[in-house]
Amino acid sequence: MDIVLLLYCNLLFMRVLIIKMSSMGDIIHTLPAVTDATKAISNIQFDWVVEEAFTEIPKWHKQIQQIIPIALRRWRKSIGRTIQSGELKQFYTQLRAQKYDFVLDAQGSIKSAITCYLSQGYRLGMDKHSVRERLAFLAYQQTFSVPWQQHAIDRLRQLFAKALKYPLSETEPDYGINKENLIQTKIELPDNYLVCIPNTSCATKLWSNHAWSLLIEEMTAFGINVLIPWGSENERKNANRLINKNPLTQVLPYLNLNEMAAVLINAKAVVAVDTGLSHLSAALGVPTVVLYGPTNPSLIGTIGPSQLHIKLSVNENDMENNTRILEKITNNLRPILKI
After folding, report:
1. 1 pLDDT band (50/70/90 cuts)?
2. Is the overall model pTM greater than 0.85, yes or no?
C-alpha cells in the first residue's frame, strides 16, 4: 500500500474518510491531526462520520469536505422506529456513496469499527493493544501501534501520521478552525465578559455551587460580566441559582455549537469544569481555567494558549481546598481581565 499511497500523494487527490463520532472533546482532539495531514499531503481531501449533535465541529476545519451524520445515540432509543423511518438505510447509502482511498477509524470502539467496516475503502485503525475496545481492530485491514500513556491529541497525530505515511509533526497542535466564521453572532454580548461553565453530566466532575457563587461575586465586584451557558433544563435552573439576580451576570439562551463557539471566542477568558466546551474554548485560543475531578489532564486535558488545569478535591464541599482554588483562579485571571 505504501507505493499506491505515494502515487496518490503525488498524482491524484487522496480521499480519506474519518470515523470519529463522539464525544465533543474527542472530536476536537482530532482536528490537529487533520491539520498535520493536510500540511503534509497537499492534495488530500477528508470526509467525516460524526454524531448528528456534533456535525458543526468538523465543518469548522478548513479541510473537511463532506459531513456524514450518524445518530446512534438517538437510534438506539427506539430501534424499531429507526428501522421504519428509513434513517438507517439512508445513512448506509450515504456512507457507501463514495469509494475512499482510505477509511481511518480514529475512535477505536466497536460501533466505529462496524461503521468503518461498512464503508468503501481500505480500512485503517489502531492495533489490538491501542484501540479503546479490544475487538475493534478486527475491522481494519491495516493496524498501527499508538501507545496509551500520552495525551489524546498526540495519539491521534501519531495515528494519522503512521496511517497516511507522513513524518510526524513536532509543532504545537493546530486545530485548523476557521475562526472568522465564528466571530459574528446575533446574540447581544457585553464588551468585557467571562464565561463560567459549571455544569456537566458527570457528578464527580462538579465543583460546589457555593464556590461558583463566590467566584461569580468576586468577578462581578471587579466589574466583569459573567455569562453562563447550559445544555439541559436542570443545568438552566442551576445557572439561575448561581447568578442570584446579579445585574452583571447572564444565563445565556439555549445555543447550538456555532453560537456557543461565537460566545467563547469573544470572551476574555473561560472558567469551566471538565466538559466538551472547555476543549472548544482551548481550541479557539481562549484563556481557560479547567477544574478537573477524576480525569488526568495530562492524558485528555485542554491544550491551547493560556490553559490552567486545577485538580478538585474529592469532597467538592472542602472549603479550605475551594478557597485555595478560588485564589488560583483569581490570580490567573488578574492579568487577563486586567483586574
Report:
1. low
2. yes
